[in-house]
Structures are given as C-alpha cells and as structure tokens.
C-alpha cells in the first residue's frame, strides 16, 4: 500500500471518474482511510468487457503501426503478427474503454499512449516469456496515463515553462491514475492501478510521486518508452529530437541506474541504432 494512515498526501483538483462521479475533492488527504472510503463508493465490477481489437482503439493502433518508425520496427512479418496476436488478448471493462475513447480529446496524450503501448508490446515479446506478463504490460501501457487527462489542457499544452504550481499538478497525475483505476476495479491492489502509480518512479529513487527505488519491471519499461516517445515528439516548448538524440538521453539515464541496462539495450536494438 502506497498510502499510510499517518502520511497524508493532498491532491490539487476535484477528481471525476468517467461515470461523472467525483471520487476525490480538491485538497483531499489521500491516505489509507480515504482509499478504504474510495473502494466503498466504487461501482459494482463489470461482469463482461470488450476486446481492444473490436474497438476503434485497434484501428488507431494500426494507423500508428503504418508510420515510418513502426514500419521499420515491424519490418519482420513474424514480429508484426506476434504483436497483433498479443493485442488480441486484451479485454477491458467498458469503463476503461470509455476512458480511452474520451482520451482522444487530448490528441497528444492519446497518440502518446498508443505509441507507448506499441513500443512496450513489441519489447515485451523479447523481455517477457510469460504471456500473462506481456498482457499486463500492454494493458498497463494503455491505462497508466488516465490521470493526466484530468489536468487542464491549458497546462498540458502550455508553450512556455510551467510554474511551480503547474509542475506540481503534473507530478500528481500518477496518483490520479491510481485512484481512477482503484475505483474502476474496486481494488487498490489491482496491478494496473499499482503500475499506474509508479510509472514515473526510477531505479535510483529520484522519480515521482513518492521518490522510491522502482522494482516494477513493467513500470520501468513504460517509463523508458514514455521518455523515448516524448523526446521524439515535437512539443509547444521544444522541437522533436532525433532517434540518436533520444537514445543518448536514455543512455545517460541507464548509466546512472535510472533505467535497467537490459531494457535500454533492447530498445536500442529495436529501433536499429
């Protein structure tokens, strides 16, 4: 459990779930007692769900797979077939599908999420021999950033430097993702909720929101792919980096222990540099 009774974290916004229910108020203390209350207000678990491949999300993933970078990554037919086969195993409750479809309002966040998912999915083919781990890695990639869509677009798209308050809000988004997923699954120990909470923690304890040493290999993989795509994408405050430049920054993170060497080596091999 990330939150204890005597250690209170505060959130900076009213947090609303996809069913329009406010699950946490601004300045709410997020501790073990609150988590217990959150689970009590959670909806009944859904008995059925939808396969990702049967939703528009799969069409959007396939569009990204046709982009130059991914055509290079997926030039081996077997790798592409294995990727699609693994994506076919993802079945989500309707609330999660609705979250992903609503995320399209945040064009960069949605596209970024799908790119991360594809990178993680392809890397998982080599990194994880267990199909359950591969499925979890893909599902966690799709859901890890639900919380960032609760941050005002004016902040996400701000062309200049964020002020201290705005930066703090950004750093809270893993907590928002954790709370949303805990609510949807009626379970704060759900692996998707747990992975979402730690996806910005690193291997030496300098990440956020808690700053502890990361041991979740799937979260570390998501973090690496998140950084890689963010660096390769033009943003209002900076131009896109080349593959070589992005890998150079990730190599520095690897050398100081933030990223496991085996994850970086696989990414470097995958992108062909």
What does this structure look like?
This protein has 273 residues and is mainly alpha-helical. It has one domain: Hypothetical protein af1432 (Orthogonal Bundle), CATH 1.10.3210. The protein is built from 14 helices and 6 strands. It has helices at residues 32-41, 56-65, 68-73, 77-87, 94-102, 107-127, 131-143, 153-156, 164-171, 173-185, 191-198, 217-232, 243-255, 261-271, and strands spanning 9-10, 15-16, 22-24, 29-30, 49-51, 91-93. The strands form 3 sheets. The protein has a two-stranded antiparallel ribbon with strand order 1-4. The protein has a two-stranded antiparallel ribbon with strand order 2-3. Strands 5-6 form a two-stranded antiparallel sheet. The longest helix has 21 residues, at 107-127. The radius of gyration is 18 Å and the shape is globular. The N and C termini lie far apart (40 Å). The model has no long low-confidence stretch (mean pLDDT 92).
Write the layout of secondary structure elements.
Layout lengths: L8 E2 L4 E2 L5 E3 L4 E2 L1 H10 L7 E3 L4 H10 L2 H6 L3 H11 L3 E3 H9 L4 H21 L3 H13 L9 H4 L7 H8 L1 H13 L5 H8 L18 H16 L10 H13 L5 H11 L2
Antiparallel strand pairs: 1-4, 2-3, 5-6
Helix pairs in contact: 2-6, 4-6, 6-7, 6-12, 7-11, 7-12, 10-11, 12-13, 13-14
Strand content: 5-15%
Helix/strand-derived class? mainly alpha
* CATH third-tier fold name: Hypothetical protein af1432
Task: Summarize the biggest pleated sheet.
Answer: 2 strands, antiparallel
The CATH architecture comes to: Orthogonal Bundle
SS field, number of helical segments: 14
| CATH hierarchy class name | Mainly Alpha
Rounded to an integer in angstroms, the radius of gyration calculated over CA atoms is 18 Å
So, the CATH homologous superfamily?
A: Hypothetical protein af1432
Give the strand line-up of the largest sheet: 1-4
Q: How many DSSP-defined strands?
A: 6
The rounded distance between the terminal residues' Cα atoms is 40 Å
User: What is the arithmetic mean of pLDDT?
Assistant: 92
Order of helices and strands: EEEEHEHHHEHHHHHHHHHH
Low-confidence segments, ≥5 residues, pLDDT <50? none
